[in-house]
Specification:
By secondary structure, this protein is an alpha/beta fold. The protein has 2 domains: 21-59 and 300-405, Aspartate Aminotransferase, domain 1; 62-295, Type I PLP-dependent aspartate aminotransferase-like (Major domain) (Aspartate Aminotransferase, domain 2, 3-Layer(aba) Sandwich), CATH 3.40.640.10. It has 14 helices and 12 strands. Strand 3 (131-135), helix 6 (141-148) and strand 4 form a beta-alpha-beta unit. Helix 4 runs parallel beside helix 10 (284-295) and helix 5 packs parallel to helix 6 (141-148). The longest helix has 22 residues, at 299-320. It is globular and about 60 Å long. The mean pLDDT is 95.
Amino acid sequence: MTHTLPFAARATHDEVPPLAARVDQLSGEGALDVFRRAMELEREGRSIVHLELGAPDVDAPPHVVDAAVAALRAGDARYVAPQGLPELREAIAADVRSRGIAATADQVIVTPSAKTAVFYAMMATVEPGNEVLVPDPGFPIYPSMARFAGGVPVGYALDADNAPDIDDMERRITARTRVLCLNSPNNPTGGALDAAAMARLAELAARHDLRVVTDDIYSRLVFDGGRAPSIAAFDGARSRTLLVDGFSKTYAMTGYRLGYLVVPREWVERLVTMSVNGHTCVPPFVQRAGIAALTGPQDIVATQIAAYRARRDLLVRGLNALPGVQCPKPAGAFYVFPDFSALLAAHDMSSRTFADRLLEEHGVAAIDGAAFGSRGEGCLRLSFASAQADLDAAVTRISEAVSVLA
């Protein structure tokens, strides 16, 4: 005898089952959400000034492009060693040694983006229940990855110069704290620690037996005093630091998705195994472009830093001229983080609402400061990687938005 289930019961076979709960621990990146909405408005014919993405407004240098194209034409698009091409790892090791970091090529692991390197570093260091110190405001992917790894992100404040506040870090260390996540210069503020502060932070990490994940992606984009120091160069931190860096910001190689880790030799084998599980290898033609970037002419770096410095100064001056707005001058990266909180409080308005209004009504794509953590409320992140004409237009439009509220 054949038994037929009622229709309602049979329908459950077509329901989509839930994913693993850990996926719900991930959060997105506000800049990409704003970018998608800005593109929708542009398709509707609106004029939008894009200040939401940290993307240089220039192309990668010609010799970098040529290296990638030549490698493709030569058939250099096959599997290669998971750790990365020896020539690229040698070039990366030489570059980090120039910052006072004792490293050799066998300590370098090439990854498909610096973001992937941060992800691997978090997964390798965070145990379930561990507390992870993350900057607040800071890059939103840090706490997202910490939660995904089973950890508990604990936000630490920035100091008066918008750099990581070491005193606040120390106050937040408990018996459960295992990992310190550092980003200097900081995204979104551009604040940076000097060498003396890094030495102090390295001692703190050693005293509390912390693993350090340092995202040095903006280390070259510093406006005074040369390259930013890395905690990996200081006593106490050398044997406990996973250094992350990449090519997107410095060499305008955002779409190449090329990054790397530099780690203590004892950790390399397990992180390479993680790479095998995660991505197998980075395309060799992309790695050839990275070799060209590091070993070829460095004109783009000096040229872009000069351009960013000029844009920074004009943008800071323009924003500080607006009533109710305070805009600190960043030491590095290519973001300003102006504070609109006094103006917004008078109108009972959040920075999210103001950012939405700027985009929808005035055509300026900016990021709500609260997207970078609770301490970012009242602020906006504006990228000055865009052309000067865009920045001038943005200040004019922001001025119009402020005048409506003032």
